């Protein structure tokens, strides 16, 4: 008599990077609005950006703090700071929590994903 074995399917593991002046918890709440049939097929890992927000968040009326930034700007948003530290932080997260099959980004961090890919 043969037995039927359930095939274990590995879910794609994604490192999820939240948007500008939000948080991992906020992105998790936003993504949890996706269809459950999609969420069931993914292994999502959420991390906060390394720097506390230095300004007002656009989501303050909807979500509670704390809020974080991946890198920082001057008041005019013309100069970026802590960018290399941010990329190193993301790489460290990938080593600590990985391996990953991909990155999921929203807003500010989409630029980070593109730049990270260019650097590799």
From TrEMBL:
Gene3D superfamilies, alphabetically?
alpha/beta hydrolase
Give the record's keywords alphabetically.
Hydrolase
Residue ranges of domain Serine hydrolase in the record: 10-108
One Pfam family per UniProt: FSH1
Q: Which GO molecular function terms does the record list?
A: hydrolase activity
Which InterPro entries does UniProt cross-reference here? AB_hydrolase_fold (IPR029058), FSH-like_dom (IPR005645)
Task: Indicate what this protein is called per its UniProt record.
Answer: Putative alpha/Beta hydrolase
